[in-house]
Amino acid sequence: MTCVLHQQRRLQLQPHETVLDCLLRHGVALSYACKAGMCQACLVRAVGCTADEESRKWIKPELQAKGYTLACKWVPQQDVGAELPNLADFAVKSHIAALEPLNAGVLKVTLAIDDPRRMFAYRPGQYLNATNPHGVTRAYSIANDYAADGQVELHIGSTAHGEFSGWLFRQAKVGDLLYLSGPAGSCHYDPVDDADSPLLLAGLGTGLAPLYGIVHDALRRGHTQDIHLYHGGRTAAQLYLIDELRALARQHANFHYHPCVIEAGSDDPPRCGNGRLEQLVTNDMAKARLASYRHYLCGSPDFVHGLRKKLYLQGARSEHIHCDPFTERSVLPE
Length: 334
Description:
Elements: E1 3-6, E2 9-12, H1 19-25, E3 43-46, H2 53-56, H3 61-64, E4 68-70, E5 80-83, H4 87-90, E6 92-103, E7 106-113, E8 127-131, E9 137-141, H5 146-149, E10 152-157, H6 163-170, E11 177-184, E12 199-204, H7 208-220, E13 227-233, H8 242-251, E14 255-261, E15 273-274, H9 277-284, E16 294-299, H10 301-313, E17 321-325
């Protein structure tokens, strides 16, 4: 049987099993999220061997040179050694500078970088991995531009069994240490390819976070074509940054903000759409020349993939649809 050597233990791999699943099955506390290579939360270091190309190709060359690979993509054909990552090898130290509720279930987390010289470059809308003091790592979209603001802004939602979000909402405080690594993801504004195209952005819940960053990035770079931002929630209480986005729309004639809810209430914000977000978007855009648009879709996988299909059938070009589907992983007991 093929084995993974970890901390002097020989852990047997099942046929076609990844190193990640093997370690988890044997009780090793290794962070992970998507199991698809996208979030890059499950980094491990190959010891006494070289990981296969498929598991290494997803990460930066400088990390590959140190032996790092993705455990979720590593399916060994012979005995291998794997150790947990050393955060100092690849992560940037930051501290929580502010915790601000945006609604009852979403926190704006502002992070100060300890050594700005070590901060990685990114584009607003991409995502990073954050590791808390307990070693829990999760991927979060970035809602601002560090190069312009000098800090990192995340919008993090409370989830039913989220270990990271549970710590953040109940225990975290200003000054707490977070390690950051990244960036990853292609859901961001391209100042060359997108400059002459209208933009359509749609998101549910904290799917607003990357879209908020993309909108500000586009406007900061002088985007002159129309920008339509749709943000939805089940009720108006699940929306956030409504006043800020409406103020932004007043400042920029080409920016159009469309808040939407499924369950309408008497206290809903004025001019708030009522209905499922994907239906409102496709109805509004039914007569638009969608082939000329760049599209950014963020939120739950069902919403993202469903709206992507609808827009494609209405004429959107598949290569111009950028998606960031969020996943929630239950990590605490019921």
